Amino acid sequence: MYPDSDTAALYDLLNPWDPERNACDRFYHPLVMGADAVLDVGCGTGAMLTLARERGHTGRLAGLDPDRAALERARRRGDVEWIEGRAADAAPGAEFALATMTGHAFQTLLTDDEVRASLAAVRNALRPGGLFAFETRHPAARAWERWNRANPNDMTELVDDAGRALRYWHDVDSVAGDVVTIRGTLADAEGRVLRVLGESLRFLGVTELNGFLAEAGFLVEEQYGDWDRAPLGEAGPEIITVARRR
Ligand SMILES: C[S@@+](CC[C@H](N)C(=O)[O-])C[C@H]1O[C@@H](n2cnc3c(N)ncnc32)[C@H](O)[C@@H]1O
Question: Is the model's pTM score more than 0.70?
Answer without folding.
Answer: yes
